[in-house]
């Protein structure tokens, strides 16, 4: 029995899951139970918990991609801008101002938006794996210029569209559950399948641990990195679709603004190392849910949302410090010192 | 031996030549487009306005260059700059005197940079995570201080904002104004030039960029220098913020989103290698001027302001690719 508990607590996903449930329980206590209330209206489930899953879907998708990118020892801070680009492409096509020959076809718009994400990802991947730019600089280019590109696609306007089939991406329900949840589950399963049922995940971890060594052992590091950035861009594009379906339009200035840190934070909270190597996709998904539930509770508690950024920045640094071996050493040295003093006293 | 040295000299300065050439080319196109777009267009004021309008960017770029030369990265400069502007506007609204506000804001920038450097150097955290967190932290602090734009009505500030020297006449090449903050930027450039060229500290910055391992084995104070480099970057960014508040006479939390790209690309266009060890203040200054010129062209052509960012990003890519090519050629 004891060994099972120990095994459970040793798994990477254990603590994130406990924290998530703890936050939910805390919210439930504060709200006096109304937090957990689920209503069924027209056969659809409504409630705070459902909201967390629906609104967290974007972040969960980003966290999936970001986990893989961080696992290769890189980073991608352009995801927010890729979301903006994908939203802009989809909405302008549905509106008819971009590619008028498509007649505002929603399917074409979605395909084009995802293709835009693939392009953005391959651009990042090209810069990182072929030009060997530092990932932070390479993706910063798209972080800043991407928003400009989205602006140019929208021609500086906020594009609003009227297309119920497109709205379905965010607001639709299947069997009582919101559609974004199905997107997340499907894509997570797909990624998990590719990563854990083939050697790909192992390659990614090996590239993240030591790119040079993996190259010598016959792994094509450059190609792996290239694919990972494409994956991240594609997932960001899907997240952008959910976002723009949610606001029923495209806002190039604000779509996915400052969401990059959230995505990195989700991975950090999930317990995967930010310096590459071992990773756990499920833990990052739970990490994303934690962030979303914190955001939701901050909003429902009436604390100013700006404080959010400050708190998240501090949490990221705290988690990094906790992971840092040097910090752990100095803490244990400090403890030993105190113990010694106690003994002397 | 002399042959290789000559080749080294050329390839070392090659990117600087390219930068200069690009600047001349761009400015020439301004001179062509300008008179077509406006009949009151005069060359000299346009040239000197490049300095006036980009003084804050010049200072921030020079600061970030120190970090880039050591082979590290700091992406928090835009937030530091915006926070300094907002916080000084906030303090001035509380009727703090200007002579107290400016040192306080500069000290905050310096110590925040030093703190980030300390976290990176002491605990071996990755520089991109720490400076990214710094970026968000300060951006968040901006909106905590004030969500609206705060106007600055301090007497000293408006006086400094107006202080300028004027020469030239309206008739010939145009009347030229150089504002006080332009001179501050020039002073920073000269000081940075001296530090990097002639001081022990400056040579150590290059040495770390060349090879940190070797610098450590040579007994250079690597840790101290690396922390100081981040502190300098933070200090320059907050000085840029102070200049920016002179320039706009207001502080607003969402100012200069994406300035980190401008600052880094100025340095890179000016020949700074992202892999460290190479970089010059003069080149960076020209990098800033090139961006100013692009901005001028975009304004003259009445295009969407975002074209500036897109063009600058494209230039950054081109220059990094160019650097790779030069590096590959040198390896051969």
Radius of gyration of chain B: 20 Å
Global mean pLDDT of chain B: 87
| Rounded average pLDDT of chain A | 87
Count, helices of chain A: 15
What would you call the structural class of chain A? mainly alpha
Low-confidence stretches of chain A: none
Write down how many β-strands of chain A occur, each being a DSSP E stretch of 2 or more residues: 6
Largest sheet of chain B: 2 strands, antiparallel
Q: Shape of chain B from CA axes? A: globular
Second-tier CATH architecture of the largest domain in chain A? Orthogonal Bundle
Strand content of chain A: under 5%
What does this structure look like?
The complex is a heterodimer of chains A (345) and B (332). Chain A has 15 helices and 6 strands. With 345 residues, chain A is mainly alpha-helical. Chain A folds into 2 domains: 13-303, ABC transporter involved in vitamin B12 uptake, BtuC, CATH 1.10.3470; 310-345. Chain A has a two-stranded antiparallel sheet with strand order 1-2. In chain A, strand 1 and strand 2 form a beta hairpin. The radius of gyration of chain A is 22 Å and the shape is globular. The two termini of chain A are 41 Å apart. Chain B is mostly helical. Chain B is built from 14 helices and 4 strands. Chain B has helices at 2-37, 43-53, 55-69, 77-93, 98-122, 127-145, 155-162, 180-198, 200-210, 212-217, 222-248, 259-269, 281-300, 306-331; strands at 150-151, 164-167, 176-179, 250-251. In chain B, the strands form 2 sheets. A two-stranded antiparallel ribbon of chain B has the order 1-4. In chain B, strands 2-3 form a two-stranded antiparallel ribbon. In chain B, helix 7 (155-162) crosses helix 11. Chain B is globular, with a radius of gyration of 20 Å. At the A-B interface, helix 6, helix 12, helix 14 and helix 15 of A face helix 6, helix 12 and helix 14 of B.
């Amino acid at each position: 029995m004891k060994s099972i508990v120990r095994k459970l607590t040793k798994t990477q996903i254990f603590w994130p899951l406990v924290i998530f449930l703890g936050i939910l329980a805390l919210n439930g206590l504060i709200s006096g139970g109304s937090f957990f209330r689920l209503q069924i209206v027209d056969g659809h489930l409504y409630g705070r918990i459902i909201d967390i899953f629906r609104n967290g879907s974007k972040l969960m998708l980003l966290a999936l991609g970001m986990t893989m990118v961080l696992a290769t020892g890189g980073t991608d801070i352009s995801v927010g801008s890729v979301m903006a680009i994908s939203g802009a492409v989809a909405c302008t096509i549905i509106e008819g101002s971009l590619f008028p020959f498509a007649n505002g076809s929603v399917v074409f718009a979605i395909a084009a938006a995802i293709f835009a994400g693939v392009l953005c990802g391959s651009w990042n991947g090209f810069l990182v794996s072929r030009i060997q730019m530092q990932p932070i600089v390479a993706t910063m280019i798209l972080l800043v210029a991407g928003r400009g590109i989205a602006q140019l696609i929208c021609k500086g306007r906020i594009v609003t569209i009227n297309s119920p089939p497109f709205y379905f991406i965010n607001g639709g329900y299947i069997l009582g559950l919101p559609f974004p949840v199905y997107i997340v589950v499907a894509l997570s399963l797909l990624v998990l399948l590719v990563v854990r049922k083939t050697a790909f995940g192992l390659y990614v971890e090996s590239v993240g641990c030591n790119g040079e060594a993996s190259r010598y052992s016959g792994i094509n590091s450059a190609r792996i990195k290239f694919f990972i950035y494409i994956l991240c861009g594609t997932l960001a594009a899907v997240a952008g679709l959910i976002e723009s379906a949610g606001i029923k339009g495209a806002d190039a200035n604000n779509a996915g603004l400052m969401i990059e840190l959230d995505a990195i934070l989700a991975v950090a909270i999930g317990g995967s190392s930010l310096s590459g190597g071992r990773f756990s996709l499920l833990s990052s998904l739970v990490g994303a849910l934690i962030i979303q539930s914190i955001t939701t509770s901050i909003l429902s508690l009436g604390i100013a949302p700006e404080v959010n950024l400050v708190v998240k920045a501090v949490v990221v640094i705290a988690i990094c410090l906790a992971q840092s071996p040097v910090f752990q050493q100095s803490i244990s040295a400090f403890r030993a010192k105190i113990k010694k003093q106690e003994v002397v006293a | 031996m002399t042959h290789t040295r000559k080749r080294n000299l050329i390839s070392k300065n090659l990117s600087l030549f390219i930068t200069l050439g690009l600047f001349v080319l761009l400015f020439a196109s301004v001179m062509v487009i300008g008179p077509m777009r406006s009949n009151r267009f005069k060359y000299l004021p346009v040239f000197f306005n490049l300095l006036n309008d980009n003084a804050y960017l010049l200072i921030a770029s020079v600061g970030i260059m120190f970090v880039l030369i050591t082979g590290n990265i700091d992406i928090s400069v835009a937030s530091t700059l915006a926070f300094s502007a907002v916080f000084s506007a906030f303090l001035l609204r509380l009727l703090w005197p200007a002579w107290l506000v400016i040192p306080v804001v500069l000290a905050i920038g310096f110590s925040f940079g030093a703190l980030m450097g300390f976290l990176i150097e002491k605990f071996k955290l990755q520089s991109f995570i720490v400076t990214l967190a710094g970026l968000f932290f300060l951006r968040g602090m901006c909106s905590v201080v004030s969500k609206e734009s705060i106007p600055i009505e301090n007497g000293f500030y408006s006086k400094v904002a107006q202080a300028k020297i004027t020469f030239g006449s309206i008739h010939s090449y145009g009347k030229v104004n150089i504002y006080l903050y332009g001179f501050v930027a020039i002073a920073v450039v000269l000081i940075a030039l001296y530090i990097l060229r002639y001081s022990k500290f400056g040579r150590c910055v290059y040495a770390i960029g060349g090879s940190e391992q070797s610098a450590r084995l040579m007994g250079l104070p690597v840790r101290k220098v690396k922390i100081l480099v981040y502190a300098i970057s933070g200090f320059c960014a907050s000085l840029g913020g102070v200049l920016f508040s002179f320039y706009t006479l207001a502080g607003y939390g969402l100012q200069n989103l994406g300035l980190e790209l401008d600052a880094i690309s100025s340095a890179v266009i000016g020949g700074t290698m992202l892999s460290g060890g190479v970089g010059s203040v003069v080149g960076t200054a020209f990098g800033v001027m090139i961006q100013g010129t692009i901005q001028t062209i975009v304004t003259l052509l009445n295009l969407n302001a975002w074209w500036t960012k897109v063009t600058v990003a494209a230039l950054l890519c081109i220059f990094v690719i160019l650097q790779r090519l030069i590096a590959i050629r040198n390896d051969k």
